[in-house]
Amino acid sequence: MKTVLNSALAVASLCFASTAFGADQPMSQATDQAQPASTLDVKQLPAAVQATIDREGGRVTRAQEATETGSKSYDITVSKDGKNYSYQVDSNGTIVKRDEMKQ
Fold first, then answer.
1. How many CA atoms lie within 13 A of 66 on its CB side?
2. What domains appear along the chain, each with residue ranges and CATH number?
């Protein structure tokens, strides 16, 4: 019984210690980390981006806004003819990058 109690106390101590050490991150580091991009509805995309996606065809399965070096672009995943494609489209509707995704 004493061994079980000691083991439980050791496990509880490790859990609390890992939580405490994880919370020791400085605030400057916590705010500097990149936030995950939020998923957008197709209707939230700029008209030029929507027109490009309509022209390419397929069903949009994911759309996210991305900002790199101060310019906005949109990462779009499309399902078409049983395959998935990844597009990076700038705010003007120009396709910057197009890849077929491996399944």
1. 14
2. 2-101 (3.10.450.360)
Among candidate residues 74, 73, 77, the one with its CA nearest the CA of residue 102: 77
Residue 63's closest CA among 35, 93, 39, 87?
A: 39
For 51-100, write each residue's pLDDT tens digit.
Answer: 999 999 999 999 999 988 888 999 999 999 999 999 999 999 999 999 99
The Cα–Cα gap between 61 and 45 comes to: 14
What's the pLDDT tens digit per position in 10-41?
A: 555 554 444 444 444 444 444 444 445 678 88
CA distance 47 to 53: 10
Separation of alpha carbons 63 and 86, rounded Å? 10
pTM here is 0.61
